[in-house]
């Protein structure tokens, strides 16, 4: 009897010990996770924060290392839009919006049909088409630039908007098609079947049932398309003129009052202006955007 | 592949509009597929035509150009050379680093000229690719493992990793240019006095660090998506069986996330091989940070046809790397991107 109770209590003690050890391990693991999370947050946000905080520093305090700006000013934002040193940042912003807008709309209008076909229809050569479109999105921009440079020079398109819009379609359209294809694949297509049972044609079912359901997918794709056009630099740096250059080129070529003095604070202000709308957009639609970004790769 | 595991995404029904069992096998099904084929052709036509105009046409004309001589003043000799067919001379010139000589024929390009930079640019491009992708894979994997855990503030971390991704590369380059300035925060933080963009290795590492910062989030998100396809029960079962955390990582996580990982690595590799914006703005290609893309851009204004040959070589290199990935390393992009028609038969 006594031995049995002793055994039982020893066992219980051991179990308690085990449980405590497990709890401790759990706490440890949780603690390590938090430390890692803080490291990730710091790594991702600190450089971006440095850009924003520098944008608010007075020029004389460009290299200040205080975490909060000690001499706060909005002058840098004024300098960013100042055209007296040959910078055309304001114009470049409008150019980027215009180019990105046209590229996005054209790519969506063309790509939505292809995405529907790839997601919904069975046909021979589907893999070939998918492979072609994926290959196109991985295509190096430099392979296009030389012939386009010559062609646009010959027909007098250098520095025009169309010379910037057309090459952008070459990488935005494939991106649009495969992002939308993977979104479309996950939609409740039974509804399309019901609509067809109720007497809709395939085209009507597409317009009346699927399009409204697809709107969020299309909107997310539009954001991704716009961002990739907005970020384009290689083609724009070669084919744009002062009047049509997008913001990426304007920032890369940003000049200061003296040629040997780099106007860091104004550049950081310009960078902040270019980035903030994007970051807000991305954070608001975070879930959808992550789904769209990773759609092609894992599903 | 990943779709075989656990909570699969809703798979589109294998066949199109009408359920299979309604259609009699044989003739009816063939008709249906044929009619879907016609539909598909119409729907795909605009995309295919657009891509043919903006991609296929430029490629073909680049290849045609690459077999032509550049007309104009020869930068090496100052003599006027006429155009005309060049055979494979443009390619030979790049690969053997030959420039045309004043006396006719070719000689080894003098150092500093574009023609003499092909192999160093290739080496630089591959250096950037291997180093950045290696760092991004390890860091991205780690970030993904953290983000896959449940803890308060997880959504904050997931949002934060999107910030570097959302910043345009041109802005990223300027930002790191400022961070790596002589009086910049990098030198102050580490108490160093390095001229980051002034000599070869600091300049290369500056590009690598900036690129890793900018693109690791993309890698992490792709890997995270792969991790989330692994059902939690697999881990629980393995825990019950008394495996260690390392064993679970090696025997469950790695093999199951491999398809997504391979695709992520492939995407990043192809992207890194065409790297342009970052070194072009950050270092201007100085100090041996000229990538193949930068070399093409620098060549354009000195001769279209020679630039076309170089861009074709670059394209072939990238194509070969992609081929090796898909063929030998099993990065099945098309299947991963999940054509639903495959499971049908």
TrEMBL record, chain A:
<keyword id="KW-1003">Cell membrane</keyword>
<keyword id="KW-0812">Transmembrane</keyword>
<dbReference type="InterPro" id="IPR035906">
    <property type="entry name" value="MetI-like_sf"/>
</dbReference>
<dbReference type="Pfam" id="PF00528">
    <property type="entry name" value="BPD_transp_1"/>
</dbReference>
<feature type="transmembrane region" description="Helical">
    <location>
        <begin position="127"/>
        <end position="149"/>
    </location>
</feature>
<keyword id="KW-0813">Transport</keyword>
<feature type="domain" description="ABC transmembrane type-1">
    <location>
        <begin position="93"/>
        <end position="285"/>
    </location>
</feature>
<feature type="transmembrane region" description="Helical">
    <location>
        <begin position="33"/>
        <end position="52"/>
    </location>
</feature>
<feature type="transmembrane region" description="Helical">
    <location>
        <begin position="205"/>
        <end position="227"/>
    </location>
</feature>
<dbReference type="InterPro" id="IPR000515">
    <property type="entry name" value="MetI-like"/>
</dbReference>
<keyword id="KW-0472">Membrane</keyword>
<protein>
    <submittedName>
        <fullName>ABC transporter permease</fullName>
    </submittedName>
</protein>
<feature type="transmembrane region" description="Helical">
    <location>
        <begin position="262"/>
        <end position="285"/>
    </location>
</feature>
<comment type="similarity">
    <text>Belongs to the binding-protein-dependent transport system permease family.</text>
</comment>
<keyword id="KW-1133">Transmembrane helix</keyword>
<feature type="transmembrane region" description="Helical">
    <location>
        <begin position="161"/>
        <end position="184"/>
    </location>
</feature>
<dbReference type="InterPro" id="IPR050901">
    <property type="entry name" value="BP-dep_ABC_trans_perm"/>
</dbReference>
<feature type="transmembrane region" description="Helical">
    <location>
        <begin position="97"/>
        <end position="118"/>
    </location>
</feature>
From TrEMBL, chain B:
<keyword id="KW-0812">Transmembrane</keyword>
<feature type="transmembrane region" description="Helical">
    <location>
        <begin position="309"/>
        <end position="330"/>
    </location>
</feature>
<feature type="transmembrane region" description="Helical">
    <location>
        <begin position="160"/>
        <end position="185"/>
    </location>
</feature>
<keyword id="KW-0472">Membrane</keyword>
<feature type="domain" description="ABC transmembrane type-1">
    <location>
        <begin position="122"/>
        <end position="325"/>
    </location>
</feature>
<feature type="transmembrane region" description="Helical">
    <location>
        <begin position="126"/>
        <end position="148"/>
    </location>
</feature>
<dbReference type="Pfam" id="PF00528">
    <property type="entry name" value="BPD_transp_1"/>
</dbReference>
<feature type="transmembrane region" description="Helical">
    <location>
        <begin position="248"/>
        <end position="267"/>
    </location>
</feature>
<feature type="region of interest" description="Disordered">
    <location>
        <begin position="1"/>
        <end position="29"/>
    </location>
</feature>
<comment type="similarity">
    <text>Belongs to the binding-protein-dependent transport system permease family.</text>
</comment>
<dbReference type="InterPro" id="IPR035906">
    <property type="entry name" value="MetI-like_sf"/>
</dbReference>
<dbReference type="InterPro" id="IPR000515">
    <property type="entry name" value="MetI-like"/>
</dbReference>
<feature type="transmembrane region" description="Helical">
    <location>
        <begin position="39"/>
        <end position="60"/>
    </location>
</feature>
<keyword id="KW-1133">Transmembrane helix</keyword>
<keyword id="KW-0813">Transport</keyword>
<dbReference type="InterPro" id="IPR052730">
    <property type="entry name" value="Sugar_ABC_transporter"/>
</dbReference>
<feature type="transmembrane region" description="Helical">
    <location>
        <begin position="279"/>
        <end position="297"/>
    </location>
</feature>
<feature type="transmembrane region" description="Helical">
    <location>
        <begin position="205"/>
        <end position="227"/>
    </location>
</feature>
<protein>
    <submittedName>
        <fullName>ABC transporter permease</fullName>
    </submittedName>
</protein>
């Amino acid at each position: 009897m006594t031995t049995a109770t002793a055994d039982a209590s020893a066992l219980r003690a051991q179990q308690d010990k085990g449980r405590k050890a497990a709890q401790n391990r759990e706490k440890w693991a949780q603690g390590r996770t938090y430390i890692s999370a803080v490291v990730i947050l710091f790594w991702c946000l600190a450089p971006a924060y440095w850009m924003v905080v520098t944008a608010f520093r007075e020029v004389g305090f460009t290299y200040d290392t205080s975490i909060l700006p000690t001499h706060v000013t909005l002058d840098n934002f004024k300098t960013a839009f100042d055209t007296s040193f040959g910078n055309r940042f304001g114009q470049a912003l409008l150019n980027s919006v215009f180019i990105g807008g046209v590229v996005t709309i054209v790519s969506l209008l063309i790509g939505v049909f292809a995405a529907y076909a790839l997601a919904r229809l069975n046909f021979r050569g589907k893999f070939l088409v998918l492979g072609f479109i994926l290959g196109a999105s991985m295509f190096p921009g430099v392979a296009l630039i030389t012939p386009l440079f010559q062609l646009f020079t010959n027909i007098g398109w250098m520095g025009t908007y169309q010379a910037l819009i057309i090459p952008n379609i070459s990488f935005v359209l494939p991106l649009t098609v495969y992002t939308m294809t993977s979104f479309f694949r996950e939609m409740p297509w039974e509804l399309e079947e019901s609509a067809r049972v109720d007497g809709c044609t395939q085209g009507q079912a597409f317009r009346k049932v699927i399009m409204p359901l697809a709107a969020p997918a299309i909107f997310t794709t539009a954001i991704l398309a716009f961002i990739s056009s907005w970020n384009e630099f290689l083609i724009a740096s070669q084919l744009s003129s002062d009047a049509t250059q997008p913001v990426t080129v304007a920032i890369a070529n940003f000049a200061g009052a003296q040629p040997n003095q780099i106007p860091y604070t104004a550049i950081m202000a310009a960078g902040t202006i270019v980035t903030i709308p994007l970051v807000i957009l991305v954070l608001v639609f975070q879930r959808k955007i992550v789904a769209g970004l990773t759609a092609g790769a894992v599903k | 592949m990943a779709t075989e595991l656990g909570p699969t995404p809703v798979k589109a029904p294998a066949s199109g509009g009408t359920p299979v069992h309604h259609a009699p096998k044989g003739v009816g099904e063939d008709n249906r597929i044929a009619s879907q084929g016609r539909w598909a052709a119409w729907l795909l036509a605009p995309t295919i035509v657009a891509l043919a105009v903006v991609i296929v046409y430029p490629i073909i004309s680049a290849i045609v150009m690459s077999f032509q001589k550049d007309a104009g003043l020869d930068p090496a000799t100052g003599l006027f050379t006429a155009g005309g067919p060049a055979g494979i001379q443009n390619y030979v010139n790049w690969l053997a680093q030959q420039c045309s000589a004043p006396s006719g024929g070719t000689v080894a390009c003098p150092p500093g000229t574009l023609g003499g930079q092909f192999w160093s640019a290739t080496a630089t491009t591959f250096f950037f690719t291997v180093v950045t992708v290696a760092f991004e894979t390890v860091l991205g994997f780690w970030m993904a493992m953290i983000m896959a855990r449940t803890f308060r503030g997880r959504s904050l971390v997931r949002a934060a990793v999107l910030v570097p991704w959302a910043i345009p590369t041109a802005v990223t380059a300027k930002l790191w240019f400022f961070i790596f300035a002589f009086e910049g925060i990098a030198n102050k933080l580490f108490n160093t006095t390095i001229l980051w963009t002034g000599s070869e290795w600091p300049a290369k590492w500056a590009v690598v660090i900036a690129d890793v910062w900018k693109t690791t989030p993309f890698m992490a998100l792709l890997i995270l998506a792969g991790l989330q396809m692994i059902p939690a029960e697999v881990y629980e079962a393995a825990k019950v069986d008394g495996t260690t955390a390392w064993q679970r990582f090696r025997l469950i996580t790695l093999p199951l996330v491999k398809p997504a990982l391979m695709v992520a690595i492939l995407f990043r590799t192809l992207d890194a091989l065409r790297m342009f914006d970052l070194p072009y703005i950050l270092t201007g290609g100085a100090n041996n940070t000229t990538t193949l893309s930068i070399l093409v851009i620098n060549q354009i204004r000195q001769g279209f046809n020679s630039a076309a040959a170089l861009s074709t070589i670059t394209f072939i290199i990238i194509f070969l790397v992609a081929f090796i990935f898909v063929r030998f390393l099993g990065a099945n992009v098309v299947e991963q991107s999940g054509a639903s028609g495959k499971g049908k038969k």
